[in-house]
Structure formats: structure tokens, C-alpha cells
Write a structure and sequence with these properties.
Elements (H helix, E strand, L loop, with lengths): L1 H8 L3 H27 L1 H9 L3 H9 L1 H31 L6
Helix pairs in contact: 2-3, 2-5, 3-4, 4-5
Length: 99
């Protein structure tokens, strides 16, 4: 556990981990329009111009084909938010107060 704390406590550790999660999320959001264009032009344009709600509606409509991409998107969002929340938790409870 100490090595994880040291990795996240460092100035570059949390930044690198969060950026890698965001890059993974961007790559997945780029993949959804390609999947949409394979089904129909309308789905591709919807995923391209409405990346949030359009992608969600498309992925739920064709869940059998897109469940892997939806799961990876969810994991990358959890990782990105988890890093920021863990960093805030560490800063709140493990930093000595200034007297």
C-alpha cells in the first residue's frame, strides 16, 4: 500500500495516471462513431455530434456489439475520477496541518 501512496503522492504520479485514463476515454469516444457508422449513417452522426448521450443511446440499443466498449469507457471514467478523489482524500487526511 505504501508504494501506491508514494506513486499517487508524487507531483507527476497522479497527473500521469489521470492523463492516461483521459486519453483512453478519448480513444474510446473516437471508436463509438466508427461502430455507429458500421450500423447506419444516422447512428454514426449521432455518436459523432452527440458524444455523451448519443453514444449512450447507441451502446444501449446495440448492447451485444458494444458492451466491451461501454465497459472500458466506464472503467476509464472510474479510474479518472478515482484518482482525483483518492488524491483529495490523501490531501485531507494524510497531510500535516500547518501550525
Amino acid at each position: 500500500m505504501e508504494s501506491l501512496l508514494q506513486l499517487i503522492e508524487g507531483p507527476a504520479g497522479a497527473f500521469v495516471m489521470a492523463i492516461s485514463g483521459l486519453l483512453w476515454l478519448v480513444m474510446l469516444l473516437i471508436a463509438f462513431p466508427f461502430l455507429g457508422f458500421r450500423k447506419a449513417w444516422g447512428w454514426g452522426l449521432t455518436c459523432l455530434f452527440l458524444p455523451g448521450i448519443g453514444t449512450l443511446v447507441f451502446s444501449l440499443s446495440y448492447f451485444r456489439e458494444t458492451w466491451k466498449y461501454l465497459a472500458m469507457t466506464t472503467v476509464s471514467l472510474v479510474v479518472c475520477w478515482g484518482i482525483f478523489l483518492l488524491r483529495a482524500f490523501l490531501a485531507t487526511f494524510f497531510v500535516e496541518p500547518i501550525v
